[in-house]
Every structure is written in C-alpha cells, then in structure tokens.
C-alpha cells in the first residue's frame, strides 16, 4: 500500500532512511528542513505488513525514490507522472533504472557517488589565513569564478540558492582569492544532522595544478567531519575522481538523473 507520509511516520521514516544516510542525504535534509507537507514538498511511503519498504520525495519539480528491495515501481511512477511540476527523477542507479518502462526520458545521466567519513587522508593545512568562509557579500565573486569555467553553468537562480544556503546555514562555501578575485572554491549544500553534499569544486584556469582546490576542499571537509557528519559528492570525471579518492573519498555507488521527455 502506498500512502502519503506525515509527521506521525517520522520515527519509522528516519530509521528506514538512516541505513544509507549518504544516499538519502537529500530526503533526510528536506524532511528536517521542511517537514512532510508543504506546497513544494510531499512524501509518500509504501507499506507492507505495517513495515515501510520504500519512500518517494517530491521537492518542487524533483522526485527521489528510495527502497532497499522490491517495491511498487509502477505505483511510484504514476505519482511522479501525475505531478505537473515533474522534471527530474533521481536516485540510486539500480532504483532509477527500474522506472525506464514507465517514465519516458529525453536524457539520462549517471554519475559516481562517493563518501568520506574520516579525516586521515585530508591535506594537513598549516595556516587557514588564505582560506575564507563565504558570506552573502562574497557570492558575486564566487559566481564570477564559476562563470569563467566551462564545466559550470552559473545562473541568477543558483546565485539566489547560494545566498539562501548561507543565510539558512544549510551549507557553506570555502574559497581562496588573489588580488581580490576568487580563484578556487568548494561548497556544501543540503547539510543536515547526518551527511552534507559537496558541490561547486572549481579552480580558475590560470591557477590550476597548484593543489589549491585540494587545500580548499580539505579545509571544508575537515571542519564538517569534526562536527560528526560525513560528506558525499557526485563526479563523472575520472581525473577529478582520483583527486577525491586521494583525499579519502570512497565510491559507494552510482547516482542517476532521469530528465522528463518533453
């Protein structure tokens, strides 16, 4: 049976999701931040003999399913397709692949998913003076950096998102600068009581191959890990993956995004 989840289900939901907290980072974070029912967020659960076996989150136009075993894929797909807002279905690769017969997609992308849980391989930083924690006043400089990097797509919407993240303490950005300009940065987003997601790791072209991104990322990870959280990230570039692995990130699976067909 599939039904909407409410606050009364919270203990069972969190116990269910906490078995794989990194993979459920977004669901856990959105529940902690926004609860079970708003105009932009809802959650559904599938129950079998009073036991929760699957969860589906809608956050705005994005849907994330999670299950540990067999579940009613068709039933979840019907909920997703019934939503006018639906644009992206994402999650653990082996879960998203099961939706292929039910949801037509114009694009499917799979990325490596990695997690770090201890500080032992992080770079040892002698001084933090050159590494800054961004405030709202630094957002424009950081997006000027991103706009000049081919792999990044910076927009006013993502600017607003970074401002909101800083103001609500749901993420942080560490960066370095030279002559008043940001030259490398690394951010977290969707921070919650368990893991945090690393995003926006980048370095200006003229400053690459100097270890700046590793230093910035190490400082960020070190502080978050000291708080008793873990960190995770996505990557699809093997070169970037080797850097993350050197710092102590371990691959825990693949994450797939399925974009709605127009």
From TrEMBL:
Entry EC no(s): 2.3.1.-
Keyword field contains Metal-binding: no
Superkingdom assignment: Bacteria
SUPFAM superfamilies: Acyl-CoA N-acyltransferases (Nat)
PROSITE patterns cross-referenced by the UniProt entry: GNAT
Pfam family, one: GNAT_acetyltran
Keywords assigned: Acyltransferase, Transferase
GO molecular function: acyltransferase activity
Domain N-acetyltransferase: 129-262
Organism annotation: Pseudalkalibacillus berkeleyi
The keyword Acyltransferase is assigned to this record: yes
Protein name: GNAT family N-acetyltransferase
């Amino acid at each position: 049976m599939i039904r909407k989840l409410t606050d009364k289900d919270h203990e069972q939901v969190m116990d269910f999701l906490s078995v794989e907290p990194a993979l459920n980072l977004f669901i856990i974070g959105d529940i902690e931040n926004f609860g079970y029912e708003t105009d932009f967020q809802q959650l559904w659960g599938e129950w079998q003999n009073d036991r929760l076996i699957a969860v589906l989150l809608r956050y705005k136009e994005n849907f994330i399913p999670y299950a540990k075993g067999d579940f009613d894929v068709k039933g979840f797909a019907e909920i997703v397709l019934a939503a006018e807002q639906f644009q992206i279905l994402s999650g653990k690769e082996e879960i998203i692949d099961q939706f292929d017969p039910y949801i037509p997609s114009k694009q499917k992308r799979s990325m490596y998913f990695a997690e770090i849980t201890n500080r032992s391989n992080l770079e040892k930083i002698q001084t933090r003076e050159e590494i800054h924690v961004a405030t709202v006043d630094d957002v424009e400089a950081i997006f000027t950096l991103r706009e000049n990097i081919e792999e990044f797509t910076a927009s006013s919407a993502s600017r607003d998102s970074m401002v909101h993240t800083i103001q609500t303490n749901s993420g942080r950005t560490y960066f370095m600068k030279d002559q008043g300009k940001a030259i490398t940065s690394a951010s977290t987003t969707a921070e919650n009581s368990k893991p945090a997601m690393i995003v926006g790791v980048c370095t200006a072209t003229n400053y690459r191959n100097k270890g700046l991104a590793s230093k910035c990322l190490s400082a960020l990870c070190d502080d978050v890990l000291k708080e008793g959280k873990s960190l995770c990230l996505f990557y699809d570039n093997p070169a970037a993956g080797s850097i993350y692995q050197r710092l102590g990130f371990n691959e825990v699976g693949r994450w797939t995004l399925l974009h709605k067909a127009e």
